[in-house]
UniProtKB/TrEMBL annotation:
Top-level taxonomy: Bacteria, Bacillati, Bacillota, Bacilli, Bacillales
The protein's name in its UniProt record: Catalase
InterPro entries for the chain: Catalase, Catalase_AS, Catalase_clade1/3, Catalase_core, Catalase_haem_BS, Catalase_immune_responsive, Catalase_sf
Catalytic residues identified in the record: 61, 139
Broadest EC class assigned to this enzyme: oxidoreductase
Similarity field: Belongs to the catalase family.
UniProt entry keywords in alphabetical sequence: Heme, Hydrogen peroxide, Iron, Metal-binding, Oxidoreductase, Peroxidase
E.C. numbers: 1.11.1.6
Catalase core domain sequence ranges: 14-408
PROSITE patterns referenced in this protein's UniProt entry, alphabetically: CATALASE_1, CATALASE_2, CATALASE_3
Residues covered by region (Disordered): 1-25, 396-417
Pfam families (alphabetical): Catalase (PF00199), Catalase-rel (PF06628)
Length: 524
C-alpha cells in the first residue's frame, strides 16, 4: 500500500481528480489553430471552478458603470454594401436603429476599487436586435495577455492579491507574464498611458478576438470589431495624473459618464471592422486568430459600419448595471465564431458564470431579456417567474419535435457556413507565435512622452521583483526592441543602485514599498 505521505513534497500539478497535468498551457484542438472540442475535461473543470470563485460579485469586471442608447447602421461596410459580407439584419439598412445597453468596467479589482487603477477596461455592448440579443464583449485595448483559455484562471490569480496576505504585489503579475512571452505586447500597452483611460467616454473598445461574418450564401470572412470615440476623442492618464484624481475621487469614471448623459452630452462611438479572408494567411508573420496580435490597420483598414450613442442613464444601478449579463457566445444570424481558442473558451465561461452568479433564469431579467419573440422548452430552475411559451403552444408540450402543439424549428435564413477541417486533435501552440515583434512595433509608434511613462512605470514595479523575474522581462523587452530593453534595464539598475534594499525585499515589503511609491500594487 502506498504511504499517505509519499507525495507530500511532489510539486506535480494535478486536477481535482488527482490526475497529473502534463500540459497546462494548451487546450485540445483540431490542429494547432482550432477549433476546440467539448471533451477538454481539464479546461472545463478548471474554468467552471474559476467561474464560481466569487459570491455574488463578478469574478472579473466587478467594478462597472453602464448606460442605454442605440446603434445606428450605415448599411455599408466601408464603401461596399454590408450584405456582401453578412446577413445580420441590424446592419442592412442605412439609418436603422437597434437599442443597446453598454457596461464599462475594470477587470481585476473588486466592486468598490478606484477607477484610476492600471487595468484593462471592459467594453461590453448588448444589442437588442429583431433576431434576439447580440453581445459584443471586449476591452479597451485591442490585444490580450494570453492566447489559450486554459491559462485564464492562472492569469487572473497572478494579477490578484496574494491569497495569504491579501496584499497586491507586482511580482506576482511579472512572475506570470515573464513566463508567458505572448503577454509582452499587452504589457507594453498596459504600462503605457493606455493602461489608464481618463474615463469611459474617451476610450476605445475592441472585440479583441477574431469573429466571422457570414452572408446569405454561407460564405464567411474573418472580422475584428473596434469602437472608436467620435466627438469626445481619446484621452489617457499618466500615473501621476491618476494618483491626483484618486486622491479626490475613486469613482470619477462612473461620475463622468452619468453626468455627461444627464446634461445631454451624449457620448458616441463609431463601430468599425477589419476584414480578412477566412484562411490561415501564410503571408503574415503571425496567425490572424491570435488575440495577442493586432491586424495592421494600414494593410487591413478600419471599415465603418455604424455608430452608437448612449443617451439614457440606468434607473437603478443594481437592476441594470450589476445584473446585466454578457457572453461572447451570444450571436445572431449572420455572425459566427472563428476558431480562435481564447474566444471558444470565453464562450463557455461567460455564460456559465452568469448562470452561477445571477441564476439559472438570468435571461428572464428585463436588462438581459431580448426585446423580441422568445419561445423555448426550457422550464423551471431557481427564480423562474415566466414561462417561455408561444401564444399557441400547448402548455402540456415542453419538448421538440412534437405533432401535438409544440414549437417548430425556424426556416433557414441562408446557407449554413460549413468550415472543413482535416487535422489531428492536438495540444499545441499556434505555429507563428512571434511573441515580441508587435510589442516592438507598438513601442516604436508611441510618442516620446508615452515611452517615457512606460519605462517609468515598468522600472518602478520591476525594481521590487526577484532578479530572475526582472531578467526575463528585460529579455522580452529587448527582443521586442533593443532600446526598449536597454532603457528598462538601465532604469532598474539606477533605481536599485540608489535603493539597494529593493532587490531583496519580501513580498509583503515589496507590496508596501509599491503602495507608498504610488505604483503597481494599486493596479496589478
Amino acid at each position: 500500500m502506498t504511504p499517505a505521505n509519499e507525495h507530500d513534497n511532489d510539486m506535480t500539478l494535478t486536477n481535482r481528480q488527482g490526475h497529473p497535468i502534463s500540459d497546462n498551457q494548451n487546450i485540445r484542438t483540431v490542429g494547432s489553430r482550432g477549433p476546440s472540442t467539448l471533451e477538454n475535461y481539464h479546461f472545463i473543470e478548471k474554468i467552471s471552478h474559476f467561474d464560481r470563485e466569487r459570491i455574488p460579485e463578478r469574478v472579473v469586471h466587478a467594478r462597472g458603470a453602464g448606460a442605454h442608447g442605440y446603434f445606428e447602421a450605415y448599411g455599408t461596410v466601408g464603401d461596399e454594401p454590408v450584405s456582401k459580407y453578412t446577413r445580420a439584419k441590424l446592419f442592412q439598412e442605412k439609418g436603422k436603429r437597434t437599442p443597446v445597453f453598454v457596461r464599462f468596467s475594470s477587470v481585476v479589482h473588486g466592486g468598490h476599487s478606484p477607477e484610476t487603477f492600471r487595468d484593462p477596461r471592459g467594453f461590453a455592448v448588448k444589442f437588442y436586435t429583431e433576431d434576439g440579443n447580440w453581445d459584443l464583449v471586449g476591452n479597451n485595448l485591442k490585444v490580450f495577455f494570453i492566447r489559450d483559455p486554459l491559462k485564464f484562471p492562472d492569469m487572473v490569480h497572478a494579477f490578484r492579491p496574494d491569497p495569504v496576505t491579501n496584499l497586491g504585489n507586482p511580482e506576482r503579475f511579472f512572475d506570470f507574464v515573464s513566463n508567458s512571452p505572448e503577454a509582452t505586447h499587452m504589457v507594453t500597452f498596459l504600462y503605457s498611458p493606455w493602461g489608464i483611460p481618463a474615463n469611459y467616454r474617451q476610450m476605445q473598445g475592441s472585440g479583441v478576438n477574431t469573429y466571422k461574418w457570414v452572408n446569405k450564401e454561407g460564405q464567411a470572412v474573418l472580422v475584428k470589431y473596434h469602437w472608436e470615440p467620435l466627438k469626445q476623442g481619446i484621452k489617457n492618464l499618466t500615473q501621476k495624473e491618476a494618483e491626483a484624481i484618486q486622491a479626490r475621487n475613486t469613482s470619477h469614471a462612473t461620475q463622468d459618464l452619468y453626468e455627461a448623459i444627464q446634461r445631454g452630452d451624449y457620448p458616441e462611438w463609431e463601430l468599425c471592422v477589419q476584414i480578412l479572408s477566412d484562411d490561415e494567411h501564410p503571408e503574415l508573420d503571425f496567425d490572424p486568430l491570435d488575440p495577442t496580435k493586432l491586424w495592421d490597420h494600414e494593410k487591413f483598414p478600419f471599415l465603418k459600419v455604424g455608430k452608437m450613442v448612449l443617451n439614457k442613464n440606468p434607473e437603478n444601478y443594481f437592476a441594470e448595471v450589476e445584473q446585466s449579463a454578457f457572453g461572447t457566445g451570444v450571436l445572431v444570424d449572420g455572425l459566427d465564431f472563428s476558431d480562435d481558442k481564447l474566444l471558444q473558451g470565453r464562450t463557455f465561461s461567460y455564460s456559465d458564470t452568469q448562470r452561477y452568479r445571477v441564476g439559472t433564469n438570468y435571461l428572464q431579467l428585463p436588462i438581459n431579456a431580448p426585446k423580441t419573440h422568445v419561445a423555448t422548452n426550457q422550464r423551471d430552475g431557481q427564480m423562474a417567474f415566466i414561462v417561455d411559451r408561444a401564444p399557441g403552444q400547448s402548455p402540456h408540450v415542453n419538448y421538440e419535435p412534437s405533432s401535438i402543439g409544440g414549437l417548430k424549428e425556424a426556416a433557414p435564413s441562408g446557407k449554413d457556413h460549413e468550415p472543413a477541417y482535416n487535422a489531428k486533435l492536438v495540444r499545441q501552440k499556434l505555429e507563428r507565435t512571434n511573441d515580441f515583434g508587435q510589442a516592438g512595433d507598438t513601442y516604436r509608434k508611441f510618442e516620446d512622452w508615452e515611452r517615457d511613462e512606460l519605462i517609468s512605470n515598468l522600472v518602478a514595479d520591476l525594481s521590487i521583483c526577484r532578479p530572475e523575474i526582472r531578467d526575463r522581462m528585460i529579455s522580452h523587452f529587448t527582443q521586442a526592441d533593443a532600446d526598449y530593453g536597454r532603457r528598462v534595464s538601465e532604469g532598474v539598475a539606477a533605481l536599485l543602485a540608489n535603493s539597494p534594499h529593493l532587490g531583496s525585499v519580501s513580498a509583503q515589503e515589496g507590496a508596501e514599498i509599491a503602495k507608498n511609491s504610488g505604483h503597481g500594487t494599486d493596479g496589478y
